[in-house]
Amino acid sequence: MSSRRLPFYQKRHKHFDQSYRNIETRYLLQEYAARKAASRQAVSYDTSSSLGKTTCRLCARRFHGSSEESQEYQKRSHEQTSHSSEQRRIRFTNELASLEEEIRSARLLAREQLDKVTIQRMVEEKMALERYAVEETISRAPEILVRLRSHTVWEKMSVKLFFTVQGFPTPVVQWYKNEELITPASEPGKYRIESKYGVHVLEINRSSYDDTATYSAVATNVHGQASTNAAVIVRRYRGDEEPYPAGIFPFRLPLPDVCFTHFDVHFLERFGVTFGMEGETLALRCSLLVTPELTRLRPRAEWYRDDVLIKETKWTKPYFGEGQATLSFSHLNKDDEGLYTLRIVSRGGVNEYGAFLFVRDADTVVINAPGAPMDVKCHDANRDYVIVTWKPPNTTHEPPVIGYFVDRCEVGTENWIQCNDAPIKICIYPVTGLFEGRSYVFRVRAVNQAGISRPSRISEAVAALDPVDLERLQTIHLDGGKQIVIYQDDLEGEVKIPGPPTNVHASETSKTYVVLSWDPPVPRGKEPLSYFIEKSVVGSGSWQRVNDQVAVRSPRYAVFDLAQGKTYVFRVLSANKHGISDPSEITPPIQAQESIVVPSAPGRIVATRNTRTSVIVQWDKPKQEEDLFGYYIDCSVVGSNHWEPCNHKPIKYTRFAVHGLDTGEKYIFRVKAANAVGMSENSQESEPITVQAALTCPSYPYGITLLNCDGQSMTIGWKLPRYSGGSNILGYYIDKREAHHHNWHEVNSSLTKERIYMVEDLRENTYYEFKIAAANIAGVGQASEPSDHFKCEAWTMPEPGPPYDLTFCEVRSTSLVILWKAPIYIGNSPVSGYFVDYKQEESEEWITFSEKPTARRYLKVTELQEGSTYVFRVRPVNDAGIGKASDISEAVLVQAKPDTKEITAGVDEEGNIYLAFDCKEITDASHFTWNKFYEEIDDEKFKVETIGDHSKLYFLKADKDDLGTYSVAVSDTDGVSSSFIMDEEELERLMTLSHEIRNPTIPLKAELAYEILDRGQVHFWLQAESLSPEASYRFVINDTEVVNSDTHKINCDHSTGVIEMVMDRFTIENEGTYTVQIQDGKAKNQSSLVLIGDAFKAVLAEAEFQRREYLRKQGPHFLEYLYWDVSEECEVLLLCKVANTKKETAFKWYKDEAGIELEGLPDLQKELICMTIPRLSKKEQGEYKATLTDDRGQDVSTLNVSGKVYDDMILGLSRVSGKSASELKIHCTPEGIRLHCFLKYYTEEMKVSWYHKESKISSSEKMRIGGSEEVAWMQICEPTEKDKGKYTFELFDGKDAHKRTIDLSGQAYDDAYAEFQRLKAAAFAEKNRGKVIGGLPDVVTIMEGKTLNLTCTVFGNPDPEVVWFKNEKLLELNDHYVVALDQGKYASLIIKGVSSEDSGKYSINVKNKYGGEMVDITVSVYKHGEELPDIKPAAPGKTRLIPADPTQESAVSKPAKSGRK
Predict the structure, then answer these.
(1) Who has greater pLDDT, 487 or 876?
(2) Could you give the C-alpha distances from 1018 to 1059, 1070, 1088, in angstroms and in order?
(3) What is the bridge-based pairing of β-strands 1032-1037 and 385-391?
(4) Which of 235-244, 501-510, 701-710 is the least confident region?
(5) Helix, coil or strand: residue 1224
(6) Rounded CA gap, 1338 and 1401, in Å?
(7) How far apart are CA 100 and CA 709, in angstroms?
(8) Does residue 1367 carry a pLDDT above 80?
(9) Are 302 and 345 in contact (CB under 8 A)?
(10) Parallel, antiparallel, or unpaired for β 928-932 and 964-970?
(11) CB crowding 1388-1402: b at 16 or more within 10 Å, else e
(12) Among 94-98, 952-956, 1352-1356, whose mean pLDDT is lowest?
């Protein structure tokens, strides 16, 4: 990006895209661009397809040629004849394709050219139309901004008449002298006419006495014309003496001979446009200076309201004296509204000044009641009759007026009497029933639907007298100045019965009454007359007396109660005390109707700029303008739709200056006309207009200073004009002259736009002075005062030159910010800083704000005194020292202006961070300049957007680098400026808010979810925190929007924020993604639900299940499917609830498809069915099923008692069993100490834990954990001292832990340990005692002669002694009985050749020192051929224990021959 500074006109220029074109033009351009691209693509494609990779046509032809030659060479050896024909066909085809392509390209090119021409023509037509529309919007009739002024001059002096006019098209101006056209050619050299930038000049050279006249200037264009005039008075002086300047007389001229015929009047303080309210007191004052001041001869002050001279009344009191003219109002009323003009009249002429006084309605007693009527006047007063008229009030936001009440009051009393019972709808009313000779005042009140208004100002008093009586008086003049007054009646003869009245006619008609007028009879007689009026409907033939009760004494009467639509005739009879006259002649047919109609709406209304707080409104007269009272103007701020009245009293002209508007605000206007019948319709609204001052030439620049000089040229600078004239300054013209020379010389022939200029070609050591004039679109303004004398001498000092262009901003109560520009001449080294000095305007002592120089070119000066005026200067510093000080600034009043605006920070609807500033005082030439650290911002990180009087500085990418001081200044205003400090806290707040706005979401209470309804319908829903009535939403299923229908019922409750959709039938086709999209203003949100795969199958299965459930419940069904519970006895109960059963309904239980037979049939009427599992174990696992069956259908409920269900049952048993757990008990065993806990039920599947001193115990050889059906135990094997302590038994039921504890220490441990030792010893003995391990039968049956061998295994430690017995007697050993003990463990008894004597009980006795046992064997011997005997073993059993006998240990150990071994 170039770093070159852009000119100011480019910065302010608004660049527009093509969006201003109409739709038709844009579509045409798009179609042309698309067609052009398609044609190029088609040409490229065809060429590439026909020529392969070759794109050049010549190369393509060469390629085809070489291909043909190669083919011809190859085929010539094979098929000479066929090749020729084929080659010709190929050549013809290629040439034809090439020709078609050339034709196609030519057509496309021609079409493209034709499209260009067509589009260009359409664009030119559109631009011409838009240019015409723009010119129409700025077109306006001529308006005179500065009017002509009257002049009084001496003979032979030149006179210049100036005036300024604006309008579009540019008006043509013609000058007139006493209404005769002035042409310079008629008297060459006499007149000179100039016109430049809207300023028109008529110069009269060497005026003569004949040039005294009224001069007029008329400006005309197609929209209308405007004129202004002024008087030129040429006075002759006496003799050949030249006139002296004012106030200078030769000493030889005696003062008494001076005759002043002209007063110079200067208005010092003028009253401006004034606003008041009914009931207030007010005074218009104007201070003036009149010279010369003569005691006996003073000018006369006259006050006018709307060009009507104001006299002193009880409402107004004028005063003139002591250099002041005042008009006081004791009680304002809307009648006082108007243009007030103060005219100082003397013999020499008239000086005048005027301004408008606005008087608004007082606050009404009833809300929305109308304002009071105004301008109440009385007409045609007679003996008992008067006509009262008034003007209607303006109604803008109040209901329209439906009528008026007229009140009267006799002068001298305070008793007000209402004259009409029903409201009168028009602004005129004939009041009757007055008493002759009395005076009355009247007032009027308006009525609308809301109520009655305040009364109007009372009218002037009127007397109830016959004006004809004065005409009938005759005066006879006698000698000596005496007079005799007689009545004409005295000259008439004796008339008894009067004659009939004459000239009976309707002087006024209305919808509700007709006013009849007539002439008294001639002669009438001396007696008082009265009149009777009769009426008759045309065609009826009957007459009706109108005033039977009260006789009429005036020759005028208002007849009421006339039927609408009917035509009447009238006649009048006169009467006196002698009788009634004959009827007068019958009037022509008269119908009760309005003589005038409601005016039509005014025509086109145009608003133009006037001042910073006023607008000129002009309009066309209405087509029907009968007897108009005037016009009411209303205004409204654009977009507010709230209308306010601009004037409160009708004005009769069609041009009005609306005052009291807000500068920079945009308004629209409307006008309505009023007459006695009512108000017209409102006119069309004007075009919106922004309240700004009209364009004028700029004021003069000031502060011309010398910035540098090299001996041949000077660099000068100056400050902006204080007033730009309402438009941008286009540039400056500079004139120069040498000191003491009279002629000025032009420095630059073309405008210079910068406020620094190097004037070259100067003479060294010569003094020069300069003056500068600024120019804008309205013209070249007044030139500045000549500068100081600057010497053209080269600057060589080492210190820097003066800073320049001191400006001030942010003037507040005790501080301000001063800015300046760096010196042009810097001396020998760069400027390192600046000192800022200030002082009060009257003081002579300068104060330096800071001891150290500031390196910046701005400074905020604080601790100033509020209300004081200060001047400033700036001194630069470099290494050489302090340089030249700047020129002293203009005086600055340190005081904050009312309604001072400050910069505000915020975030817009799109999340953009901005600083905003409003300025109502802007003009067309104003622009907002945003600065960072008081240097103009020219960075891509920022964007300035200005619309009207509102400007914003946007931070495009806000970060920590944006911290600092920001300021804004508005040009062409009275120093409007402000600053804002962007610190870290504020930036963080704005960035947080920006993030929230840029990512707006509608908060959701619940995401999109679903539920299955009873009939298998799927209900999708979500809930937002809140939704406005304008919020929109839509359901999307698999990228396809669904709408409300019978299959998809969609609904939204904005009050609760619930959006829902019910799908009537959920099928396999509904798999996919479900999305709800919501938009409420700019906030958006969406929620999705993915139903794919297993998730969809689950929903589908549930929907189908619910649908089946609905169908299932039509017959016998399970109200609650099989479920389980645990009783207090630790029994598992399988439960279910049934419904819709009857007597024939059958219920059955199954386990693993096998029927279960229970005692008794379940009672289905109780609905709850139960099956008990007494002791749950793993063998009870399986699928349990219950069925309901009857003729309506079958229902099945299953419960798989396995897996998690089985585990939950165990937890349920644990919960009941844990509550019944006993305290831990100690039980000793030979292996160790065992801790027991007795339960209602215990199984190994329960979650049981044992703890020793808070440490969990795992089952091991040392600590064994186990249990039985009703007890849980933990055994400590071989306990030691370490095993002492607290033991805890814990049974967890899934929620709670049931704990039991015991303290195994102290005496409890000692007793348990002793018992353990005892049991251990007993167990050891039991383990090592002698015993028969196996091998012996209980009964032996054997045949005689056989050999019986009884063998067994014995055990003992030490080895036991074995003794055999027969029938409880020691067996004697011999050859028949043989006993053996092999290896110390195999004992045998052999009986050889058994006989019947060998039958009996044999016993083996196995014993050692720890004891032993005796085992019995029954032997039965039977003979050959006998049946096998059935022998049972002898009681009491097979094995008998033998305790240890210490005394026999030695004997046992000795061998013996008898049955011992």
Answers:
(1) 876
(2) 14, 11, 15
(3) unpaired
(4) 235-244
(5) coil
(6) 10
(7) 78
(8) yes
(9) yes
(10) antiparallel
(11) bbebeebeeebbbeb
(12) 94-98
In order of 447, 522, 887, 1349, the CA distances from 472 in angstroms are 43, 12, 87, 191
- Taking only Cα atoms into account, the Rg of the chain, rounded to an integer number of angstroms, comes to 64
Rounded Cα–Cα distance for residues 515 and 339 (Å) = 36
Report helix angle 57-76 to 23-51, nearest 10. 30
pLDDT-derived band of residue 128, with 50, 70 and 90 as boundaries?
confident
Which residues on adjacent β-strands are paired with residue 1062? 1019, 1049
CA distance 288 to 270: 8
- Band of residue 208 on the pLDDT scale cut at 50, 70, 90: confident
Minimum mean pLDDT range among 213-217, 517-521, 630-634? 517-521
User: CA-CA distance, 1062 to 1018, in Å (whole number)?
Assistant: 6
| DSSP per-residue codes, 1081-1103 | TTEEEEEEEEE-THHHHHHHHHH
DSSP 509: E
What mean pLDDT comes out for the span 1072-1088? 89
With a CB cutoff of 8 Å and minimum separation 6, the contacts of 290 are 263, 264, 265, 298, 299, 323, 344
Q: Is the pLDDT of residue 519 over 90?
A: no
| Strand, helix or coil for residue 1398 | helix
For residue 399, CA distances in Å to 451, 602, 1055 come to: 10, 21, 36
What residues have CB less than 8 Å from 59, skipping those under 6 apart?
none
| The three-state (H, E, C) secondary structure of 38-62, written as one string | HHHHHHHHHHHHHHCCCCCHHHHHH
Amino acid type, 1188 = L
Tokens of 1256: 């969990």
Task: Report whether pLDDT(19) > 80.
Answer: no
What is the torsional sign of CA 394, 396, 398, 401? positive
Q: Residue holding tokens 């383990």?
A: 1327
Under 8 Å between Cβ of 650 and 632: yes
Count of residues for the chain? 1461
pLDDT per position as a tens digit, 889-908: 999 999 888 878 888 999 88
Interstrand relation of 1117-1126 and 1132-1139 (parallel, antiparallel or unpaired): antiparallel
DSSP string, 754-815: SSEEEE-SPPTT-EEEEEEEEEETTEE-PPPPP---EE------SS----EEEEEE---SS-
Contact criterion met (CB below 8 Å) for 582 and 611: no
Residue 8, SS3 per DSSP = helix
Answer for the pair 633, 648: CB distance below 8 angstroms, yes or no: no
Compute the distance between CA of residue 31 and CA of residue 41 in angstroms, rounded to an integer.
Answer: 15
Other Cβ atoms within 10 Å of 361 Cβ, number? 20
Tell me, what DSSP letter sits at residue 1216? Answer: H
Residue type at 793 in one-letter notation: E
Spatial separation of the C-alpha atoms in residues 1402 and 1391, rounded to whole Å: 11
* Whole-number Cα distances in Å, 42 to 35, 45, 101, 105, 625: 10, 5, 11, 10, 71
- The DSSP code for 449 is S
**Confidence band of 486 (pLDDT split at 50, 70, 90):** low
Helix or strand holding residue 1275 (H, E): strand 1271-1277
Bridge-based pairing state of the strands 935-936 and 928-932:
antiparallel
Q: How many Å apart are CA 23 and CA 34, to the nearest integer?
A: 16
CA distance 713 to 438: 92
Look at strands 324-329 and 282-291 and give their pairing.
antiparallel
Cα–Cα distance measured from residue 753 to residue 11, given in angstroms and rounded to the nearest whole number: 14
For residues 1014 and 1064, give the distance between their C-alpha atoms in angstroms, rounded to a whole number.
Answer: 11
By the 8 A CB rule, do 674 and 391 touch? yes
The identity of residue 122, as a single letter, is M
Asked if residue 169 has a cis previous peptide bond (ω within 30° of 0), the answer is: yes
Instruction: Please list, in sequence order, all residues whose beta carbon lies within 8 angstroms of the beta carbon of residue 280, skipping any fewer than 6 positions away.
Output: 329, 331, 332
- In the chain, the amino acid numbered 209 is Y
- 779 - beta bridge partners? 776
